Each structure stands twice: as structure tokens, then as C-alpha cells.
From TrEMBL:
This is tRNA-2-methylthio-N(6)-dimethylallyladenosine synthase. Residues 5-121 form the MTTase N-terminal domain. InterPro entries: Elp3/MiaA/NifB-like_rSAM, Methylthiotransferase, Methylthiotransferase_CS, Methylthiotransferase_N, Methylthiotransferase_N_sf, MiaB_methiolase, rSAM, rSAM_horseshoe. It is an enzyme of class 2 (transferase). [4Fe-4S] cluster 2 binds at C159, C163, C166. Catalyzes the methylthiolation of N6-(dimethylallyl)adenosine (i(6)A), leading to the formation of 2-methylthio-N6-(dimethylallyl)adenosine (ms(2)i(6)A) at position 37 in tRNAs that read codons beginning with uridine. One of its GO terms (cellular component) is cytosol. It catalyses: 2-thio-N(6)-dimethylallyladenosine(37) in tRNA + S-adenosyl-L-methionine = 2-methylsulfanyl-N(6)-dimethylallyladenosine(37) in tRNA + S-adenosyl-L-homocysteine + H(+); N(6)-dimethylallyladenosine(37) in tRNA + (sulfur carrier)-SH + AH2 + 2 S-adenosyl-L-methionine = 2-methylsulfanyl-N(6)-dimethylallyladenosine(37) in tRNA + (sulfur carrier)-H + 5'-deoxyadenosine + L-methionine + A + S-adenosyl-L-homocysteine + 2 H(+); N(6)-dimethylallyladenosine(37) in tRNA + (sulfur carrier)-SH + AH2 + S-adenosyl-L-methionine = 2-thio-N(6)-dimethylallyladenosine(37) in tRNA + (sulfur carrier)-H + 5'-deoxyadenosine + L-methionine + A + H(+).
Length: 435
């Protein structure tokens, strides 16, 4: 019997890459590849890369450097680069790294098996097209293996917003939505295999238009799928939070009370320079309406400090906005110059100022996160259990608000959804007892 070939995938960046890596592994499964968790015994290594900030992109080249020895020992080893660095710098990767056999962009990875077949005897393959055909249709059915209780499901890709700092519209292309019927089929299939919670993914997920009532329409249909208990979605743009979606937060029980709604900055001058097409005030109004619909909604956000031309005063506007919103969690970054984006050409803020602002912002966001988490003590929440904890009998799951929760619960299994009373709050998680 021939030994199955082994595939090692290393995933960088966002949740959509996590989803894409799964789909690529499934596509290669059809070619006799099984996944391995180490590059050392792999027949093929695939890096699924991220281009959003400079550091993320640099990691690819240093990781490739580490594979040189492996390739010398095993010349048959195939090395591929996928994802957004592949899209943005495909030719450059081929030129700089002769050990790379293939490069495939995020919109053409359904062609991975064909590309692989074209390599060998010195031949290399590159595909960074934005093809006409829908890759999800070309990939068709997913594997039938049993799944964990949570899953990502990509429903929308690409972005037409062109924020002045962002590479996504260039690496992922124009906004495209998958038809609702396809998404529902995939969701039902996931549920059949044990999934209880689905997070709908898109670079601009609330601009989804694969259903005539938009993302809210899709969510309401998903909510009718028996066995699917929880629905989340990410990432959203404030301008696409329409009335239907805000209402769904109020009356759709399966839609969880947690929303990631990036604002990036609190200064209207900077928001304008960022090409965000909203003001601090209009963002705050959206939050107000969401909280009217769902008072216990936990908010999360993304922030960039040190965007070109940002002054101390502009930065203080960001701090003031954060004070007003009170975030349950947040991600904050120093602005990173991305080649080809408009902001890269402008007057840059010094590294020292970026460091100082990031530290102040993260201190404030950290305090807010902890305060909101501590306020959970004494409350009863739903927890979906995902895995066994480090201590015997302990299970770990996620609250409705996405906090990690540890519970002593002999007899509980991954996939169980139970009511839990929160008893204490630690640095990164809550502890509770079954009700
Ligand atoms: N520099 C720093 N952060 C960035 N992001 C996007 N582009 C950049 C950049 N050039 C951040 C934004 C976005 C998140 C995914 O990454 O906050 O919401
Ligand atoms: Fe990038 Fe998001 Fe702006 Fe689109 S909306 S350009 S993905 S930051």
C-alpha cells in the first residue's frame, strides 16, 4: 500500500485564512494528502500568508529560509505560498526564493491540485488570477469528517471601500457574495457533522448581498437551521450596519450579543484622510442604535495609531471615543506603510510617537476589557463547551459574549451548550459553575 502524502499548512493572519486553509487541505485531500502538524515529515508545505502589516509579510521570507535544509535533504518536497502575500508579491517570491515550487493567490486556490501537477523537474507554477469562476463552486462538497462545535464559514470576500491604509481591496479583490442557498447548504452540512456555532466571515461581511435582505436575511434563515445554536459574523464596516441588521441584534436569539465593529480612529480629520466615509459621531450613533436594540451587546474594535499626519490632538480624539464606547475587547496596531496604498506616500509619524500612543491606547482598552469581564461575575450566561481543560474534569468553552469560561463539569462533552453562573474573573478568562 502506498503511504499517504503529508501536507503541512501554516496559517497566518485573519480568520478567513483559517477557513481557506481548511478548504485547501480538503482540496488536497482529494489528491491523497493528509495533514500533518510538522514540516519535518511533510511532502508538501503550504504557507497561507497575510499582507496586512509589514511584519506579517516579512514572516513569510524568514519562514521560507528555515525550509532550505529540508528541501536539500528531500528534493521532492513541494513548497507553496498561498494567501495575500502570494497575491501581492507572487513574482517577487519566485525570484527571491528559488525553493518555492508554487504560488497561489486567495481567489485561485481551487486550482491548487492542477498547479501542483505542473511542478517538478525544475518547473514552477504561479496563479494569482481573479478568475471568473467561483472557487467555492469549483471546490464543491466538503469532507464528511466529524467537526468540533464551532466553525467559520466565508460568505463574502473582498472589499470596495479602499481605506487609505489597507491592502485588502488589492489582495482580495472586489466585493463578492456567495449565494444564500450555497451558504445554507454548507451550514447544514457543518451542523450535521457536529457544529453548533457558525461565524460568518467576510472582509466586509455586513455588505453581504447574496440574499435580498442582506446579511440580516441570511442570518434569519440560518437561525431556522435545527441544531445550529449560535451565529456570529465578522468583520463589519459601520456604514453597512443597516436597519435590518441592527434589528436582528435585538430579536434574533441565535445571533450572539457580540459585535466587532472597527472604527480605526476617533478624529474626523484622520477618518477623512483614511477614506473611511464616516465620522466619529456617525459611528457613535450606530453603536447607540445597536445598544437600544440589544443593551448587553459587547463591542469589539480595531484601531490604528500613528496614521500619517496624526497629531497628539487627533490621537486624544481616539482615546475619547474609546472612553465613550467602552469596548469588551479590541485590537490595536501601529500604522504600517503598505506599498501601493495612498497613505504610504504621506508624511509619516515617528516610531517613538507610534509606540507611545499604542501603549496609552492599549492600557485604556485593557482596563475596559477587564472591567467588562469582571462585571460578568454573579451573572448567568450561555456557554458552548469546546474542549477539556488542563485540570481533570474541567471543561473550557465560550460565553455568549466570547469570553473563555472554565467550568468543573464531569460528564460534559464538547458541543454541550449550558447555562453557567460566573463565579470569578481571571486575567484572560472567567470561571463558573453549571446552573
Ligand atoms: N497598518 C496598521 N494596521 C492596519 N490594518 C489594516 N491595514 C493596516 C496598516 N496598513 C488593521 C485595521 C484593520 C485590521 C484588520 O488591520 O485596523 O481593521
Ligand atoms: Fe481594508 Fe476593512 Fe477598509 Fe476594506 S473596509 S479597505 S478591508 S480596512
Amino acid at each position: 500500500m502506498t503511504r499517504p502524502k503529508k501536507l503541512f499548512i501554516k496559517t497566518y493572519g485573519c480568520q478567513m485564512n483559517v477557513y481557506d486553509s481548511e478548504r485547501m487541505a480538503e482540496a488536497m485531500g482529494g489528491q491523497g494528502y493528509v495533514e500533518t502538524d510538522t514540516p519535518d515529515d511533510a511532502d508538501m508545505i503550504l504557507l497561507n500568508t497575510c499582507h496586512i502589516r509589514e511584519k506579517a509579510a516579512e514572516k513569510v521570507y524568514s519562514e521560507l529560509g528555515r525550509y532550505r535544509g529540508l528541501k536539500e535533504d528531500r528534493p521532492d518536497l513541494k513548497i507553496g505560498v498561498a494567501g495575500c502575500v502570494a497575491q501581492a508579491e507572487g513574482q517577487e517570491i519566485m525570484r527571491r526564493q528559488p525553493l518555492v515550487d508554487l504560488v497561489v493567490g486567495p481567489q485561485s486556490y481551487h486550482r491548487l491540485p492542477d498547479l501542483l501537477a505542473r511542478t517538478g523537474n525544475g518547473a514552477r507554477a504561479l496563479d494569482t488570477d481573479f478568475p471568473e469562476e467561483d472557487k467555492f463552486e469549483a471546490l464543491k462538497g466538503r469532507g464528511k469528517a466529524k467537526r468540533g462545535p464551532t466553525a467559520f464559514l466565508t460568505v463574502q470576500e473582498g472589499c470596495d471601500k479602499f481605506c487609505a491604509f489597507c491592502v485588502v481591496p488589492y489582495t482580495r479583490g472586489a466585493e463578492v457574495s456567495r449565494p444564500a442557498a450555497r451558504v445554507l447548504d454548507e451550514a447544514r452540512d457543518l451542523v450535521e457533522r457536529g457544529v453548533r456555532e457558525i461565524t460568518l466571515l467576510g472582509q466586509n461581511v455586513n455588505a453581504y448581498h447574496g440574499h435580498d435582505k442582506g446579511l440580516a436575511g441570511l442570518i434569519r434563515e440560518l437561525a431556522r437551521v435545527d441544531g445550529l445554536e449560535r451565529i456570529r459574523f465578522t468583520t463589519s464596516h459601520p456604514n453597512d450596519m443597516d436597519d435590518e441588521l441592527i434589528a436582528a441584534h435585538g430579536d434574533c436569539d441565535k445571533l450572539m450579543p457580540y459585535l466587532h465593529l472597527p472604527v480605526q480612529a476617533g478624529s474626523d480629520r484622520i477618518l477623512k484622510r483614511m477614506n473611511r466615509h464616516h465620522t466619529a459621531e456617525s459611528y457613535l450613533r450606530v453603536i447607540e442604535r445597536l445598544r437600544d436594540a440589544r443593551p448587553d451587546l459587547h463591542l469589539s474594535g480595531d484601531f490604528i495609531v500613528g496614521f500619517p499626519e496624526e497629531t497628539e490632538e487627533d490621537f486624544r480624539d481616539t482615546m475619547a471615543l474609546v472612553e465613550e464606547v467602552k469596548y469588551g475587547s479590541a485590537f490595536s496596531f501601529k500604522y504600517s506603510e503598505r506599498p501601493g496604498t495612498p497613505a504610504a506616500e504621506r508624511a509619516q509619524v515617528s516610531e517613538a510617537d507610534k509606540d507611545d500612543r499604542l501603549q496609552r491606547l492599549q492600557a485604556l482598552l485593557g482596563r475596559q476589557q477587564r472591567e467588562l469581564q469582571d462585571a460578568m461575575v454573579g451573572r448567568e450566561v450561555g456557554v458552548l463547551f469546546e474542549k477539556v481543560g488542563r485540570h481533570p474534569g474541567q471543561m473550557v468553552g465560550k460565553s455568549d459574549y466570547l469570553h473563555a469560561v472554565h467550568v468543573d463539569g464531569y460528564g460534559l462533552a464538547p458541543g454541550d451548550l449550558r447555562r453557567v453562573r460566573i463565579t470569578s474573573s481571571g486575567p484572560n478568562s472567567l470561571r463558573g459553575t453549571l446552573v
